[in-house]
Every structure is written in structure tokens, then in C-alpha cells.
């Protein structure tokens, strides 16, 4: 497991509430807290992925020169590979996690989308 930030692949998600995001990613998706500077920022890790959770008071949420304000949500997403998608779906539904869709199958496998508390999408993928 990587030790310093340069050894991780890092993805930033803007979130409405850093504490709720930490809880979601650690309790439901198996991440570990690396740093916690809530309410502004935290980062959590899983299998070489460093997920940067940036709250409304973080530097990442500052308005752009044109006045646009960065916010959570959208369709870009991280993908977490799972061995048994059906079991993961059952577990997460029992835990009250919000799903964006039902399981869909494609040429490479099956996937489903869940939402974190801020509406960011996480894909769970089981290879064929």
C-alpha cells in the first residue's frame, strides 16, 4: 500500500459535507481515512486510490474567474471493482445507500451506480 500522496492515483470530489462523505466512503465502500481537516477537506484511500473530499470551504470550491462555483455531482466517477456485484448491491441496499440505477450488463461485465451523500457517482463493476 502506498505511503505518500505521489504514490496514489488521486481523484477530487467536491462534497457538501466532509464528515458525511468520510462516513459514506469508510462505512460503505471500504476506504480508510488518511487525513481529516473537516469541514474543509479530507482524503480517504483504497487500493492505491486517494479520494480527495473537498468541502464548501476548501480551496477547490472557490469561484472561478468567470464566477462559476464548483459543486458536487455530475457523471464522471470512480469505478470500484468488486468480485460479487449482487452481494454488494444487497449489502449496500440494506445499509440504505442510494442507487442511481439498476444493475446493467455490457460486453465487459456488469455495473451499478451509487450516490454519495453529495450526489457524486461511484460505479461498482464486476468483470465478466
Automatic annotation (TrEMBL):
Pfam families cross-referenced by the UniProt entry: Glyoxalase (PF00903)
InterPro entries per UniProt: Anthracycline_SecMetBiosynth (IPR052164), Glyas_Bleomycin-R_OHBP_Dase (IPR029068), Glyas_Fos-R_dOase_dom (IPR004360), VOC_core (IPR037523)
Domain called VOC: residue spans: 7-127
Organism: Saccharopolyspora rhizosphaerae
SUPFAM superfamilies cross-referenced by the UniProt entry: Glyoxalase/Bleomycin resistance protein/Dihydroxybiphenyl dioxygenase (SSF54593)
Protein name per its UniProtKB record: VOC family protein
PANTHER family the UniProt entry points to: GB|AAF24581.1, GLYOXALASE-RELATED
Amino acid at each position: 500500500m502506498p505511503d505518500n500522496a505521489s504514490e496514489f492515483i488521486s481523484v477530487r470530489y467536491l462534497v457538501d459535507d466532509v464528515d458525511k462523505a468520510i462516513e459514506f466512503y469508510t462505512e460503505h465502500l471500504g476506504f480508510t481515512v488518511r487525513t481529516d481537516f473537516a469541514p474543509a477537506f479530507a482524503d480517504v484511500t483504497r487500493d492505491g486510490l486517494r479520494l480527495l473530499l473537498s468541502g464548501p470551504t476548501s480551496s477547490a470550491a472557490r469561484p472561478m474567474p468567470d464566477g462559476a462555483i464548483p459543486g458536487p455531482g455530475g457523471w464522471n466517477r470512480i469505478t470500484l471493482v468488486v468480485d460479487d456485484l449482487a452481494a454488494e448491491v444487497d449489502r449496500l441496499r440494506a445499509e440504505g445507500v442510494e442507487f442511481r440505477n439498476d444493475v446493467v450488463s455490457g460486453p465487459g461485465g456488469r455495473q451499478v451506480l451509487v450516490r454519495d451523500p453529495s450526489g457524486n457517482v461511484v460505479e461498482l463493476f464486476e468483470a465478466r
